[in-house]
Write a structure and sequence with these properties.
Helices cover 61% and strands 15% of the residues. It is an alpha+beta fold. The model is unreliable at 1-5 (pLDDT under 50). A hairpin with a 2-residue loop joins strand 5 (103-111) and strand 6.
Length: 374
């Protein structure tokens, strides 16, 4: 029996619903918009000149104060010029050094309606980021056509769900595990059903993904005790606690991040298996469920090896400098693997990889149940 995969009307309806959801999320207040002082004005500014007389070079780092003269490019003070101090603390990941012609994010502090202080917050990068996103969107749509538009819509929806729902709810101390499961359920549903279609193939991939996420979540909880890791191993986690949120359970946030981080790879693998099984059934409508399940498992075995390596590369890519430091200082691998932040990445990689291994048979089972009618 041939299983139709086209459902244009339902797909169009889902696109409209998700587009409206994106608009609603964009307009949704997080409740944290008014945390900054009301007397602060932000604008773009061009760097007119710099004074480096009080900047001192120590090896490869700089310390001291760079005085920057800036002219506002927009906002209520466009065209006016101020001098701002740029403090250099000797940390290359935090310091920014300006040069004439640079564009900076200028923050003006008002007092009695007049500018009392000016701070060059950082280099202004929004235009470059917008350009990169535009190139990404253009190439995606040009290559994939309508499917590219759907993929772009799911990308925007996922980003808004993270910023407008996940992050504010975590700060309000909503349980991270339940919240993470809810957000990943919504994101994976939007992505798979939008790109893969609202049909049996898409449903099989989504259900397989959900089962894989549930398995990864269970594994993360099971390994939390033996690994003896605190959630503060993540960058800026401790800073969040010191910023007025000492009640947050950072360990559960860390555990939720494990299955959320691997959910993208789980979706890819589930869709590979479900799409292969759907094509198999379409070409051979009389195939038995046992034969379809065996084919789905073979496809899963072929794909899962590369996907686990994908997770390894994704997680380790951000720690190349750390690995270089270990090697340069002759730190034994045994010592390095026992460091908390390294052990956290090991746990991320291994638990996520185990979840990937489980998603293939889960999707094969759901695909057999949904796609094969005999």
């Amino acid at each position: 029996m041939h299983i139709p995969l086209r459902s244009t009307r339902r797909d169009t309806l889902l696109c409209v619903v998700l587009a409206l959801a994106c608009l609603a999320l964009y307009l949704l207040p997080t409740g944290f918009e008014n945390r900054l002082p009301d007397n602060a004005v932000r604008c773009r500014a061009t760097v007119v000149s710099v004074d480096n007389d009080r900047v001192h070079q120590y090896g490869i780092v700089r310390m001291g104060t760079q005085y920057v003269t800036l002219r506002a490019l927009d906002g209520p003070y466009a065209g006016q010029t101020w001098q701002a101090g740029n403090e250099l603390v000797g940390k290359m990941e935090l310091d920014k050094v300006f040069a004439p012609g640079d564009t900076a994010l200028l923050v003006l502090t008002l007092r009695d309606g007049k500018v009392a202080d000016a701070v060059a917050q950082d280099h202004y990068r929004l235009h470059t980021q917008a350009l990169a996103f535009g190139v990404f969107a253009l190439l995606l749509v040009a290559f994939a056509g309508p499917t590219g538009v759907k993929a772009l819509l799911s990308f925007v929806f996922s980003a808004l769900m993270i910023w407008k729902v996940l992050v504010p709810a975590l700060l309000r101390d909503v349980d991270p595990i339940l919240l993470g499961l809810g957000v990943t359920t919504a994101i994976t549903a939007a992505t798979i059903l939008l790109v893969g279609g609202m049909n049996r193939r898409g449903l099989a991939a989504w259900l397989g993904t959900l089962l894989g996420i549930a398995a990864t979540c269970g594994l993360a909880l099971a390994f939390a005790g033996p690994f003896q890791l605190h959630g503060a191993v993540r960058p800026y986690a401790e800073t969040v606690l010191y910023s007025g949120y000492p009640h947050l359970h950072m360990t559960r946030i860390f555990l939720a991040s494990i299955f959320m981080a691997s959910s993208g790879a789980l979706m890819d693998l589930a869709m590979d298996v479900a799409a292969s099984m759907a094509e198999l059934v379409a070409q051979n409508p009389g195939i038995s469920r046992r034969a379809a399940l065996a084919s789905g498992l073979r496809v899963g075995r072929a794909v899962v090896g590369t996907m686990t390596t994908t997770l390894l590369l994704a997680y380790s890519g951000g720690y190349i400098a750390t690995l270089m430091l270990f090697m340069a200082q002759g730190i034994p691998l045994e010592n390095a693997l026992n460091l908390p932040f390294v052990a956290a990445e090991v746990m991320n990689t291994l638990v996520g990889s185990i979840g990937l291994v489980t998603v293939a048979p889960f999707t094969a089972l759901t695909g057999t149940w949904l796609l094969v009618m005999r």
